[in-house]
Amino acid sequence: MPLLVTDYSWTQTETTVYIHVPLKGTAAGKVDVVSTDEYLKVHFPPYLFEAFLFEPVNDDRSSAKIREGEAVISLSKTTNNMWRHLMRDTDDKIKKMQVRERALLKYQEKLCSESRSKAEKQRAERKYALETMMKLEQEERHSIQRIKDTERQRTTTEMETWQLRQKQRAEEKSQGKLHRDDQNKLRAEKQPQGHSGQSDRKQPADLPAPRTSRNIQVTFTPRVFPTALRESRAAEEEEWLRKQAEARRAVNADVEELGDLKEEDRNPEWLKNKGDKCFMTGDYLSAVNAYNLAIRQNKRIPALYSNRAACHLKLGNLHKAIEDSSQALDLLIPPVAANAAARARASVRRGSAFCRLQLYAEGLQDYQAALKIDPHNEALQTDTQRIQDIIQGSAAKTH
Question: Does 264-398 carry CATH code 1.25.40.10?
Answer without folding.
Answer: yes
